[in-house]
Amino acid sequence: VQGTGNRAPAFVNQLPSVTVQENQPVGTFVLSLLAEDRDCGDELTYRFDSAAPLLRITQDGDIYTTAPFDREARTTFDVVVTVVDDASPVPGSDSVILKVTIGDENEFFPVFSKLVYRVGVSESAPRDTPFLVVEATDSDGCPDCGGVTYSIVAGNPGDAFRINATSGELL
Prior knowledge:
Strands 2-9-8-5 form a 4-stranded mixed beta sheet, with no helix packed on it. Strands 3-7-6 form a 3-stranded antiparallel beta sheet, with no helix packed on it. Strands 1-4 form a two-stranded antiparallel sheet. The protein is built from no helices and 13 strands.
């Protein structure tokens, strides 16, 4: 039985967006899109109208992953989703752009730019005189992960040295 209405379906949320954490297993539920059709009896079907990397959609509008996401390779993408009714003689439809943001997992350790730092400090240097800046990078590149912070964890008898936790400057 086909619907005979003349009103097209419409998505309830016209600006859908979702964040999916990277490295989630295949089949992870992402989002359920909902459209309404005021015609009685029309059956709705959902589909992607643009390339949908790493996603699949059911005819009911449920979206799942088809592979793990990697935020270091891609941070966002957009997918066009269309809902179609079965009205006769001309089916109605509506489309939205789904914005997918890939959330970062803190999966990499910071790495220092040098393995060994050698420096001399004069005994007569005033306390809190900067004498070295250490530098490390984190491949996650995640602004939400807090970045790299520095601390002295050993070899500092009497707390003779301090380090700026943000800049890596030793005093």
